[in-house]
Amino acid sequence: MTDQHWVNLDELEALAMKKLPKMVWGYYSSGSESEATLRDNRAAFLRYNIMPRLMVDVSKVDTTLTLFGEKLDFPLLIAPMAYHKLANPEGEVATARAAAACRIPMIQSTMATVRKEEVAQAAKGAPFLMLQLYVTKNRDFCRNLIMGAQKAGYKAIAVTVDAPRLGHREADERDSFHLPEGMAPVELDSLVSAEEHARQATGDEPKSAVARVFYNQMDSALTWDFVAWVRAFSSMRILVKGILSPFDALRAVEVGVDGIIVSNHGGRQLDFAPATLDCVANIKRAIGDTVPLLMDGGVRRGTDILKALALGADAVCVGRPILHGLAVNGQQGVQDVIKMMRRDFEQAMRLSGCPSLKSITRDKLLKQGEPLSRL
Ligand SMILES: Cc1cc2nc3c(=O)[nH]c(=O)nc-3n(C[C@H](O)[C@H](O)[C@H](O)COP(=O)(O)O)c2cc1C
Ligand SMILES: CCCCC(=O)C(=O)O
């Protein structure tokens, strides 16, 4: 297995692990506490089988969709993740170029290591960009960030709602996770000094610098009225990321969001939160076709995408494999990840007898324990 030759995302992950410094690997791969949710995100996909329907003309399969008025090549977005420069010196620029080349949207993290204007430049040709928002206690800063993104051409914000505090990731505590000198989440420049991200903890502070910065800056008093607050000054679409309960999904629709991302933050926030795939159907039942429903967590195969769509998702987001591709081979590595997922999704559609996204329905799936007679 050379850098150039991996045949699935597990092999790519192993290559990334070998390449990255231990502290970075620990940060990327961790879930919180006992990592029950991290494991369950993957396990949930194994709990479903796909019942193929045969003798369907699948000589052409149409993977395209329209989301927020823009055409995507297939139903995949890049999930927001902090600090891409820890994987590759080009950081988010390489990721954005890959998104553009593959015609899928990228969601940029508040904690990006490249400025949003520069990411927007690199993403020219991508269907759209979204800015993930961590809501700071300082609301003037938050408003400026949103307005800056709007001005830079971002189409939407995704407000992360599952992180009133950062989850407890034990690898980060053990490794005293901090950013190398000279690297910082640049959008936060006016709030936090570069030294603060690199400083080792003293006294009773959280050992992980990322947890410390988060604790000091982000607003754990965030509630639903935030959506109306943003509406009052911004015309951008507003999504909420981190929804698991159908009651929260309904509440989000009530307060007027434009989309929901079902997520448990890749198992990095509340340990023992349910696997995201298990939450999709319930949430779809609750909100119907009111707003687009996205999901993330453990999506690694084309069949995973098919399962998420069959349960009611309109599209999925993928997280860690993007960082693995970036670490192993920069922009090309990210493109290879996306291309592989697209190829495998097409294959899953063909072999299950689904020539269009519309034909990927719940009756193609059988959950473990369900009798075949359910179909
Ligand atoms: C290293 C890393 C950094 C992340 N940073 C952010 C972030 O800045 N904002 C956010 O909303 N989610 C963040 N997430 C969560 C992802 O957006 C996404 O929910 C999760 O990674 C999806 O699961 P997957 O990695 O199994 O595909 C991060 C995840 C990882 C692994
Ligand atoms: C303060 C950065 C937080 C990034 C994040 O969301 C994660 O590591 O999961």
Automatic annotation (TrEMBL):
The molecular function GO annotations come to: FMN binding; oxidoreductase activity
Active site residues per record: H265 (proton acceptor)
Known CDD domains for this protein? alpha_hydroxyacid_oxid_FMN
Q: Name one Pfam family in it.
A: FMN_dh
Q: Which domain of life is it from?
A: Eukaryota
List, alphabetically, the PROSITE patterns matched.
FMN_HYDROXY_ACID_DH_1, FMN_HYDROXY_ACID_DH_2
Keywords linked to the UniProt accession: Flavoprotein, FMN, Oxidoreductase
FMN hydroxy acid dehydrogenase domain boundaries: 1-370
List, separated by semicolons, the cofactors it needs.
FMN
Gene Ontology cellular component?
A: cytoplasm
Protein name, as recorded: FMN hydroxy acid dehydrogenase domain-containing protein
Name the family: Belongs to the FMN-dependent alpha-hydroxy acid dehydrogenase family.
The residues listed in the UniProt record as binding glyoxylate, with positions renumbered to this chain, are: Y27, Q132, Y134, R169, S263, H265, R268
InterPro entries per UniProt = Aldolase_TIM (IPR013785), Alpha-hydoxy_acid_DH_FMN (IPR012133), FMN-dep_DH (IPR000262), FMN_HAD (IPR037396), FMN_hydac_DH_AS (IPR008259)
Q: Where does FMN bind?
A: P80, M81, A82, S109, T160, K241, D296, G297, G298, V299, R300, G319, R320
